[in-house]
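Tutorial, part two.
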Amino acid sequence: MCPQAAPGRVRAAPRAPGPHNVCRLLARRAHGFYARDAGVAHRKNLGLLRKIMCQESTKFKNVWTTHSASPIAYERGRIYMDNYQCCISSIAQAPRILYQKSKCAKSEKIEDALLLECPLGEMLPSPSDYKASLIVLTVQNWLLRLSADSGEVLEKIYLAGSCCKSFRYLSWDTPQEVMVVKTVQNKLPAAARQAGIQQSVLFYLAVFQVLPLSFIGMLEINKKIFGNSVTDVAVSNGILIVMYSMGLVRLYNFKAILEQFMEQPFDLGQEFNWNGQVGVVGKYPFGLPCNIKITDTPPLLFEASSLENAFQIGGYPWHYIITPNKKKHKGVFHICSLKDNALAKNGIQDMKCCSLEPDWIYFHPDMSGRIIHVGPNLIKVLKLKEVKNHSDQMEIAEDFTIVANRENCVNNTVTVTASGRVVKKRFNLLDDDPEQETFKIVDYEDELDLLSTVAVTQIGADGRAHLDFHCNEHGILLKSIPLRESWDVTYSHEVYFDKDLVLHIEQKPNRRFSCYVYQMVCDTAKDD
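Running the prediction step on this input gives:
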C-alpha cells in the first residue's frame, strides 16, 4: 500500500521509467503512449476518420459543381478561380465564397502560386504570419503574399524590371522553408541574333526564406559556366539541378554555391548602392540585386544521362531512377545506387506495355523508401532490401500489386461467327484501350495513410471513373467511390483526395474548365 501524503501537500504520481532507446521512444510516441503529446489526439481523430470513411455505409456525395473559362486550382481546402481573384472554401457543408476580387488587368495577371502555412513552434514577427497565406507571382515581376482567407495583400516585393528578367515559376527548395523564383529561359530575338549580339545568361533564380519572408540571394545561370546546351534548371532539397539538351543531368551543392559566390548579403527594405544603382531592396523600380556571381564551375556532386532528363533520387540507402538515354528504351527504368552507380539486383523495371501513354515510376511520397511503378492495368509497389549474404548489395523486391478489374474483358485473336466461319484479328487491343479499365491517377493521402487510384473505363462516348482507397501498407482495397460525371480520356484531369473531400478538376478543349466537389456523408434511410 502507498503511504498517505502529508496534509496540505500534493503527491505527484511516480513516473514510469521511460525507454532510453530513441527508436523505441519514437515508436511508443507513434502508438500514442504519451497522453500529453499534442499530436496524440490528432492521430486518434485521423484514425477514427479513416475507419468511418472506409465503412460500407459511408458515401461520397457530389455537393457542388462549377464551370469556368479560366483555370481552376485547389490548395488545402480552398478552390481558386478567375486567376486567383475568387477563393471558395470547400470545407463547409456546401462550398462558400471566402473572397471575390474585381477582375484584374492583364498587367496584374498571376503566373504561379504557392500555399504558405505557419511553421510549428516558432515565434513570428506578425500575427498574420500564423495564418495560411498565398505567395503569388505576377506577370510584371511582383511577388505578393496574400491572406489565404481574405485575399488581402500582406507583403509586396518587386523582383526586377521586365526589360531584363521575366520571372514565371515558383517552387520549393525546402517545403515551407526556402522558396525559389525562376525566370523563363532568356532568348534573344531573331533580329538581335542576326546582328551578332550575344546572350550568355540563361536563367535567373531568386531565393527566399519564408515566414518571415527574407531575401537570401539572386544568381544567374550562365552558359559560360554551365555550357551552351542547358535547357532547364531547378533547386530542390539544397541541390542545384542543371539539365542539358542531350539528356545529361548534373547536381551541385546549392548551399556551397551560396557560401562561395555570394558577394554581399542584402535584406528586404535595405537601401543599397549596387553597380552604380541606388535603391531599396525589393522596391520598385530597382527590385533585387544579383548578389551571387558564379565565376567558376562549382564542384560537381553527381551526373547521369537519362532519356528526357528523367531523374529521381530516393530510397534508403540512397538510389536513383533513370531511363537509358535512347528512344528504344522508353518505358525501361534502371534503379541504381547513388553511392557507386551499381545497378540493384532486379533493378531493371520494364512492364513491356503496348500503350499510347507510357507507364511511370517514382519514389513513394510516404518516405518509406519504396517505389511505385504504374502501368495501364497494373500498379507495383516495390521495396529495396539487402541481398541475402551480401549486405553491401541491394535488390528490388515486390511489396504488393494492385490489378485493374478486367475480368469481363475478352481479347481473342480468333473468333467464330454464327455460320461457323473463322475470323482472325489482324491486331491486338492496346494495354490502355479505353474500353478496358485503365489506371489514370495514383496519389497518396499522408494524413490518412491511404493510397488512392483512379481507374477509367470508356464505352462509346461515355467514360466512367472510380476512385479507390487502398491500404498503404498492404495494398488491400478498402473503399471504392464512383465519380458521377462522365470522364473523357482525351481531356486533362486532376483528382484531389483530402481527408473527407474528393475534388475533380477537368480541362476541356477551348479552355473550358469544370470542378466537381464530393464530400463524405453517412448514408441513411432518409437519404436513400
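The CA atoms of residues 156 and 351 lie 49 Å apart. In part three we will examine how such features are distributed along the chain.
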